[in-house]
Description:
Largest sheet: 5 strands, parallel
Strand order of the largest sheet: 2-1-3-4-5
Shape: globular
Amino acid sequence: MMTVLLVATDEEAAVLSERIHQNRHFRVISHTPSPRLALAQAHVLLPDVTVLDPSMDGDSDPAALFMGLRSLTPPSGVVLRTTPATAGLPELHAVLEEGAVHVAARDDHDALMAALITIGRRRESCDPDQ
Length: 130
């Protein structure tokens, strides 16, 4: 089972959790609208995947959150939920170039699930202890 941390408002998290839980291989373990709190939770919970929205008004830079998530051992997979306005944010350009992030349009739940499944398959095919 893959664990998922959502960086989303309560309303968004309710909708996303319901959608994610339709697939028995994924469980949302926590959610918060705060990028800074999400990073603190990730250090304790070590989620397999973190889903975040770079347009959220928050207390931290989404790129800094991404780098913090990727520095965990093992690193959390990241799915960015974007809008046309946030897809080209300059501070996320370097993050997207690294290739360790999946992008899904905010309103495209099928793309979100496809990204989660892709990350799950990638993790299933490697041994994190090596």
